[in-house]
Structures are given as structure tokens and as C-alpha cells.
Amino acid sequence: MGMSSHTFNDDTATNTIRLGVVVAEFNGEITSSMLERACNHAKELNAEIRYICYVPGTFDMPLFVADLLSKDDVDAVVTLGAVIKGETMHDEIVALNASRLIADLALRYGKPVALGISGPGMNYEQAVDRINPVSTRAVSAAVNMVKRLRMLRSKGKGKDNGKGIDSNREDAGGTIVIR
């Protein structure tokens, strides 16, 4: 017996996705390039960057992330930082604590926070190599999460996903796939 499913694929969302970006100033020669690429990628995805907030370092991000998530004109936050290995385990402490707190904030506010933080355990050359992939993937993740959450949250409210599928309709035992 096969399972019935509905796939909601929202590539035609008409609502602008509004982003906040938190950028670490530490390793600024890397993070400034990350910010430039993130801004360009947001434009390519038709997302609007409403806020760009600079913090001293990656460890300092959670406070600004929380403030941005509390704003009505922010749908998601993108974090940009580079945590480079030194002679101690400091890079691991910074990256692990910041990422844990950032993930907790996403859950508390019910809004996506994309982790555009490279490291720990990398050297300067590795950080440079990761400028483009980390920053663009973070923006893509934030935009895609907002779109998918909008589809999920509209389920049961009679909204159309843009492809003529009524999200209220569910077959007995049906599965709804949001992609």
C-alpha cells in the first residue's frame, strides 16, 4: 500500500525575505570579504538585508542575534565569522559556545539563524579558502529556511503554495513534504 504525499516547493515566494547580518570584526580581512559576498548573494536571491551589525568577535554574536530576532522586520539572521586556530584550544571554546548559543536563540525566537562561521581548527589559508562557500551557504540557508517555515506555518490556514495546491487538503495517511 503506497503512501500519498504532497510536495510543497516554494520557488516563487512573493514575500521579501528580510535578513539581519552579524559580522565579527576579529579577523576582519576575512569577515569583510565574507560580508561582501553575503550581500551579493542576498541580492541574487532577492532577499533584503535590513541590518548589518558588527561585533568585536564571534563569541560576542549571540547578544546581537537575540536583538535582531526580536525585531518584526527580520525574518532570519546570518552570522559571519572566522575562528582561526592558535596555540591553545581557545578557538574551539569560542566556536562551540557561540554556535550553541546561536542555535538556542533560533529555537527561542522561532526564526532561522544561519551559521556562517568558519572554524574552529583551521589556519589562515583555510579561512581564506572558505570565504565564499561559508558566506553564500549561510545566506542560502537563511533564505531557504524562511521559505520552508512560511510554507509549514501556512499549513492548515488555507494558503496556496503558489502552485495551485491547497495546503488544507490532506489524504488519509498522506504525507506533506516541504522542500
Automatic annotation (TrEMBL):
Binding residues annotated for 5-amino-6-(D-ribitylamino)uracil, in chain numbering: 26, 58-60, 82-84, 115
Gene Ontology cellular component terms for the protein in this record: riboflavin synthase complex
Active site as annotated: 90 (proton donor)
Chain positions covered by the region annotation Disordered: 155-179
EC category name: transferase
Biological process, per Gene Ontology: riboflavin biosynthetic process
Comp. bias regions, Basic and acidic residues: 157-172
Domain of life: Archaea
Pfam assignment, any one: DMRL_synthase
Annotated pathway: Cofactor biosynthesis; riboflavin biosynthesis; riboflavin from 2-hydroxy-3-oxobutyl phosphate and 5-amino-6-(D-ribitylamino)uracil: step 1/2
EC number: 2.5.1.78
Entry GO MF terms: 6,7-dimethyl-8-ribityllumazine synthase activity
Matching CDD domains: Lumazine_synthase_archaeal
Entry keyword Transferase: yes
Function: Catalyzes the formation of 6,7-dimethyl-8-ribityllumazine by condensation of 5-amino-6-(D-ribitylamino)uracil with 3,4-dihydroxy-2-butanone 4-phosphate. This is the penultimate step in the biosynthesis of riboflavin.
Protein name per the record: 6,7-dimethyl-8-ribityllumazine synthase
Organism: Candidatus Nitrosocaldus cavascurensis
Gene name tied to this protein: ribH
